[in-house]
Amino acid sequence: MLRGWLKTIALLIALLPWPAHALLTIEITGGSEAALPIAIVPFGTEGFAPPEDLSEIVSNDLASSGRFAPLEKRDLISQPHESEQVNFADWRLLRSEGLLIGKVSSQDGENYQVQFQLFDVYKAEQLVGKRYQVPASGLRNLGHQIADIVYETLTGEKGVFSTRLAFVSEMKNADGSKRYALQVSDADGANPRTVLQSTQPILSPNWAPDGEQLTYVSFENGKAEVYVQQLSSGRRNSVASFEGLNTAPAWSPDGKKLALTLSKNGNPEIYVMELASGNLSRVTHNSQAIDTEAVWMPSGREILFTSDRGGRPQIYRVDASGGRAERVTFEGGYNASADISPDGRMMSMVHSVNGRFHIAVQDLQTGTVQVLTDTTGDESPSFAPNGRMILYATEQKGRGILAAVSVDGRIKQRLGESGSAVREPAWSPFRN
């Protein structure tokens, strides 16, 4: 199993055994007992079948959050598509607190008109209603957008169903050779598309704050190099190809800088690069340790990183301009691969318990640590942009898969596809 801080060393090792093809599906393995019952009526289609089932997308999204319990279709007492068709007394019998109805229409089969309404059943009032016009190719994204609106309306928190996931997979060719792929999918694992393919490993994808660029490490030229790639155009640039290691890139909150691990001066240290000029500033100075896996605090003024300077991997904090590093983790003999919640209050990490590696969170004010997962061999935690869930890589029957867990540990998901393996997940920011 590739441990977080050991990725720096592993960059020097031969190809990793990650057989994969990536079309992810979500399996809920744990949920909240307080999940809100909601009725999602199949959208009316006026006698035709659109290429996407919007109500099904919304239902799956809300169920995957663990905070909603959509009623089974067979339990729906009627199928209204207009507000005047709704009998709230009937829906109260099902103890459904929310009711979503909608319609889809099209004149040419290429462009679609969609409307939906969300009701509070007990108050018998509309909470939100919207109309859209989208091409056929935009229906799935619209389904995620509607799910986001329903989620935010009923919880007060922003939904993440319209965000994306980045991850690394490996495909095996017919002749037995391998190729690695950096892929991006919807938050539910649908619509995977390949950003980069290579016969050499790809590591450490990291999203730019604008959600339109990725940085990652590629071995395609025979050594580790850090690239920045535009998703819309595919245009990319190598930004770090110094002698030695070039790895673990992380965007600053303003998108103007990268924190990197470089060994250009002989030892792995944290550096900050200004992307516009390419200027480098060295942040850490410890010739006896491996300093790696930098992550920025939301203020942009501080960086957290993994180091074995105390003998075992632990997480430290340092000013982004350099200076004395302070240890952040003290519970347990191994803590690595930090990620920071959007509000800066929580840190996720890989935490060792009895020699097994789990995902844990630490309150950065109190220092309290909570272990969230019961899987083992967990790595690469990545917060959802609303801070509610943590995406990570783990193993199932010896095969790499992705999983997610809520910050309180109550909601658990597995994302996987039979016969595949995926690693190195990163959850995108909200789309602008």
UniProtKB/TrEMBL annotation:
Pfam families: PD40, TolB_N. One of its GO terms (cellular component) is periplasmic space. InterPro entries: 6-blade_b-propeller_TolB-like, Tol-Pal_TolB, TolB_N, WD40. It is found in: Periplasm. SUPFAM superfamilies: TolB, N-terminal domain, Tricorn protease N-terminal domain. Keywords: Cell cycle, Cell division, Periplasm, Signal. Residues 24-127 form the TolB N-terminal domain. One of its GO terms (biological process) is protein import. The keyword DNA damage does not apply. Belongs to the TolB family. The Tol-Pal system is composed of five core proteins: the inner membrane proteins TolA, TolQ and TolR, the periplasmic protein TolB and the outer membrane protein Pal. They form a network linking the inner and outer membranes and the peptidoglycan layer. NCBIfam families: propeller_TolB (TIGR02800). Part of the Tol-Pal system, which plays a role in outer membrane invagination during cell division and is important for maintaining outer membrane integrity. This is Tol-Pal system protein TolB. The gene is tolB.
